[in-house]
Amino acid sequence: MTVDELQKETPQPAKLGLVGWLRWFWRTLTSMKTALVLLFLFALASIPGSLVPQRSVEPDKVALIYQNDPALAEWYDRFYLFDVFTAPWFAAIYLLLFVSLIGCVLPRTSTYLKELRRRPPTAPKNLSRLPYHARAEGELDVEEAARRLRRLRFRVATGPGWVSAEKGYLRETGNLLFHVALLGLLVAVGMGSLFGYRGNVLVVEGDGFANTVAAYDRYMPGSRVSAESLEPFSFTLKDFQASYQLGGDKRGQELDYTAKLSVNDSPESPARDYDLKVNEPLEIDGTQTYLIGHGYAPVFRVTDGKGQIAFDGPVPCLIESKPTLTSGCVVKVPDAQPEQLGFLLQFLPTSVRLTDGSHVSAFPGQLNPQAKIVGAFSGDLGVRSGKPQSVYQLAPDDVMKKLKPLAMGSKAPPPLAVGQSFDLPDKLGKIEFTGVKEWMTLQIAHDPGRMPALLASALATVALVMSLMIRRRRVFVRIKDGAVDVGGLTRTEGSGTGFGEEFADIVKALSAGEKDVR
C-alpha cells in the first residue's frame, strides 16, 4: 500500500469551521477561569492610574512631566498612561469582563433554579460508609424524624423507612449574588461614563468659578452629557489657609489646608460660606467638588518700555519641590511695547541664602517670600501665531531660539522681595513683585453610578461572606427494626471542617425527647 493510499484510509481530524471556532471562543470567554483572569487584568490595568498622574485629576503634575522629561511624557501618552481609565485597552478588558460575567451567571442561574426544585436524593442503604455516621437513641419513626429535621431548617424528603434532608443552598446563592454584584459594579461604572462628567479647574484666591463648560481647564463629559446637564452653581475662593509642621523630623510636612468658599447653589440662591477640605467635598445636587492640590500664585506687575502697565496679576506656578513648595513661574507679556516680554521665574516661599550666594527655599510656608528671575527675554513669543501654547511654558523651542536674552545667569538680579522691582536693560521696562496669593486645584465630578457602585460593592461583600461561610450538607436517616441510623456529608469540597460538631447536635436532636427538641 502506498503512502497516498494509507493517508486516504487514515481518519483525518474534523475541521472546526467558523461555527466551531465561534463556539470554542464563547465557551472559553464565558468560563470561570477566563472571568478570573479578566478580573485580575482589570485590577492590574488600574494600577498605572494610581502610579502615573492622570490628566483628569492632576493636570499640573502631567504638565510638569512634559516639562522635565518630554520624551518620557510622549511614551506615557502613547500608551494612554495619562488617561488610563479612558484608554482603548482598558475599555477592551472592561467589555470582555462584562460579557464573560454574563456568560457565567446566566447558565449557573438556570442550573441553580433547577437544583432548588429538585428533591433531596434517596438515602443510601449503608449509612456507615458516609464520612459521618452515628446511631440515634430512642424510638423514632419517619414522620417524627422529618419533623425534627425541618425544625433544624433542613429541606426534607421521605420514603419507606428513610429520611433525606439537605440545607446550605445559600452558598450557591452567595456565589451568584457575587457575580451579579460584579455585573452591577460594571454597569455602575458604565453609567458614570455615559451620564457623568468630570472636570479640573485651577482657582486663585479672590477669583471665582461658575459651573459652565467654558470655565473648566479640562472638561471630560460622558457621551450622553450636554452643556445644559451641568448644575448651575458657582463659588468664590475668599481665602486659602495651609498649616505645616514647624519642627522635628517632619518639619515642613503639611498638617491641613482649607479653602474658604462663598457658594451660590443656584443663580437665585443666596451665598453661603463653606470650608472645603481634602476629604470633605462640596456636594450640590449630586455634583461633588474635591480639593486635590494647592500652590502659590505670586503677583507681578510689568511696565513696558513706553511706561504703560502691560501686565498686572497673579501667576499660578508649578511646584518644582514638594517639601519646600519651590515653584516655577512663567510670565508672558505679549502686549508690551515696543517689544513683547517674557519671564522665567522661581518662587521661594521661605528664601534663605546659602554660603555660595545662591538662594533656596527652606520651608513651604510664606516666611520670607521672594521671586528669583531665572531669565528675562524680549521678542516675538509666538502667542499670535495660532498655534496652541502651554501657560506653563514661555515658548516652544523653535521660538525660544529667536528671543533676545535680557537677564540670565550672572546678569540676573538677586531675588526680589515683595515690593521690589527690576529694571530691564535697554529701557524695555521693569517687573515688580507686588504680592503673593495661593491657588487650589479642584476636581468637579458628577457620577450617577456612584451610589449603585456602593450598593453593588456592599452586596459583593455580603455575598462573598455567604459563599465562604455557608456549607452545603446532607443528612440521611434510616429506620429499621427500631434502630435509627444517621449519616451525613458535606457537598462542598474542603469545607468539612466544623461539620462534626453540627452533626453531633443533629444526632442529639433526633435522639431527644419531645420537650428537648430545639
UniProtKB/TrEMBL annotation:
Coiled coil: none
InterPro entries, per the entry: Cyt_c_bgen_Ccs1/CcsB/ResB, ResB-like_domain
Keywords for the protein's UniProt record, in alphabetical order: Cytochrome c-type biogenesis, Membrane, Transmembrane, Transmembrane helix
Membrane association type: Multi-pass membrane protein
Pfam families: ResB
Keyword Transmembrane helix annotated: yes
Residues passing through the membrane, by range: 35-52, 89-109, 176-197, 451-470
Localization annotation: Membrane
Location of the ResB-like domain: 32-503
UniProt-recorded name of the protein: Cytochrome c biogenesis protein ResB
